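Inverse folding, one chain.
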């Protein structure tokens, strides 16, 4: 695992090293059946291609709509998502981009979430959202690493 997510400007970034094959990591980032084991209580999207829509749902927080923006197999995966529970994407959405790369005997996973600077609501709201999502990526990527490294043993 790695250190914590960090905020720089209006972007949240975190990299974790996972002792798992790149293919395994890719599946965990893009297959809804695997995603629900580390990221949300329900995940679904219409297709794994740019423009596809869906949602990531948490029982305690609600449903967060997504639109896939990038799919480069075993390299990068991106989506816009709502930062608040909603029925559709709106001006409160940010962009999430995962990149994966071979690293020694495992895989490095980097998440970059951007777009906080254009959120409505002013500086305090933007900073609060940045901090909430920074904390969220600490939890979620730790869960990803635990899931995949547990599978590798």
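Residues assigned per position:
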């Amino acid at each position: 695992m790695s250190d914590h997510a960090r905020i720089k400007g209006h972007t949240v970034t975190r990299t974790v090293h996972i002792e798992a094959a790149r293919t395994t990591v890719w599946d965990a980032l893009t297959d809804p059946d695997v995603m629900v084991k580390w990221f949300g209580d329900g995940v679904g999207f219409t297709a794994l291609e740019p423009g596809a829509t869906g949602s990531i749902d948490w029982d305690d927080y609600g449903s967060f709509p997504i639109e896939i923006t990038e799919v480069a197999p075993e390299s990068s995966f991106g989506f816009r998502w709502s930062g608040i529970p909603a029925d559709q994407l709106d001006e409160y959405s940010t962009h999430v981009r995962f990149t994966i790369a071979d690293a020694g005997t495992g895989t490095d996973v980097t998440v970059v979430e951007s777009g906080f600077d254009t959120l409505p609501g002013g500086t305090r709201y933007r900073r609060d959202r940045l901090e909430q999502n920074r904390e969220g990526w600490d939890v979620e990527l730790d869960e990803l690493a635990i899931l995949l490294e547990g599978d590798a043993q």
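The first helix runs from residue 22 to 30. The mean pLDDT is 93.
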